[in-house]
What we know:
By secondary structure, this protein is an alpha/beta fold. The chain has one domain (5-231, 243-379): 4-Layer Sandwich (Metallo-beta-lactamase, Chain A), CATH 3.60.15.10. The chain contains eleven helices and 16 strands. The chain has helices spanning 5-10, 31-34, 44-48, 86-96, 112-115, 122-125, 140-149, 270-278, 302-312, 328-338, 345-353, and strands at residues 15-21, 63-69, 75-80, 104-106, 134-138, 168-172, 179-180, 187-198, 214-216, 246-255, 259-262, 285-289, 316-320, 367-369, 375-378, 384-386.
Amino acid sequence: MHYTKDDSANASTPVEFIFMGTGTSSCVPHVDCLTRPPEAEPCLTCLSTLTPEGKRNARRNTSAVVRLRSACSEDVTILIDCGKSFQSAAVEWFPKFGLRRIDAVLITHAHADAMNGLDDLRGWTLRGAIQLHIDLYVSMNTFKEVQRAFPYLISKEYASGGGDVPEFKWHIIEEGVPFEIGGTGVQITPFAVHHGRIFTPAPPVEMPITPHSLSPASTAASSPNVPGTPLHAEDLPTSSPADAIQPYLCFGFIIQDAITYISDVSHIPEHVWAMFKSRGKVPPVLVLDCLRILSHTSHLGIEDSVETARRMGAKRTYLLGFSHDLQHDDWVTITEAAGGENHEGSKLALIEKHGLHGLREGDPIWVRPAFDGLRVFVSGEGSVRDEGYSR
C-alpha cells in the first residue's frame, strides 16, 4: 500500500479509498457540448475539460477502489462497480496508484454505468494475465440482469468468440447480511436504498445458472434458486399495476467500519437508518450521491445530500455522481456553505443564484465534491485525510 511511514505507524488498519469515477451515467464531458455550433450557448463545464485547469470537471462513471490490509497483513483491493468508462479509468489510475490485482468486485446495481465494463476484466484473467479469476459480489437481481445482458459472463457456452471472456466466481449477497471477502477478514455490510422506480419489470431470463459459477457470499446468504437450477418466468416478479410502482433497489456498502458508500440513491428507507444506528458507531467517511442542484427521480440533489450527510454524522462526506450543470469549483463553494462559511462576491452570488442559503441551516458539516483520482485515507483510529483538500 502507498502510505507514508507516519501513516503506517499511526494506523493499525488503514484504509485507502480511490475515486475511479465521480460522474453521472453520461460521464463528463458530453459529446453534444463539445460539438455545439458557435452560435449555441457554450457548456463551460464540458469545454473546460479540454484544458489542464478543467481536469477535475472530467468525470467518468461512479466507481471506486478500496485498498487495505487483510488479517494476514496482505494487500486487499476491492473494486466498487465496473461501468462503461471503467477501462479508461483503470488505464489512468491503476498504474498511477500501483494497483494491479483485484480481490473482489462489488456491484451496486444492474445499470450500464455500474456493470457494462465487466467484459473489460478479461484483461485481468485471460490466460491468467494477472490472476486466474475475479470474485464478484452481487444481489440475485443484479446477477439475473448480468445473465440477461451478457450471458457469456455467466456461462461460457454462450460466448461466440472462442471463449476469450473473463473468468468470474459469482457470490450472491443479501441486504443486511455481512460477508467477508474471501478469507481476508475484510467485512462488508450491504444495504438497499431506493434508486428511482420500476415501472415495468424486465422480461424473464430463460437460461440455466452454471453450477460452478455461483455461490452464496456467506452461510447466512441464501437464494430461492440453487446452482444448476434453470430460471423460469415464474421465478421472477410479475408486472405490477400502474398504481403499485415499486422502488428500484441499489446496494450501498459499509466497508470495514471505515467507509459508508452510497453512490446511487433517491431515498434511504427508515429501516436502513435504523441499521446504521444499531451499529453503534458511524464510519468516519461517507461517500454520497449528488447529481445536481435539484432533486431527481433517481438521485439526490444538493439539499437532499447535505441533509443526509448531517443525519449520518460522518467526519467527512464526499459527493459524487455529478452532471455537467456546474463546475467542480462551484460545487466546492456550495459545499463550503454547508460547513458554515460566509461567502462574498462571486461566491455569494452563486449561492444566491441557486437559492441555497438554507445549506447553512443546521450544524456545520465537512462535505466536498469528490473528483476522479482523489485519494482518501482513513487511519485505524478513524482520522481522515485526502490529497485534494487542505482542510
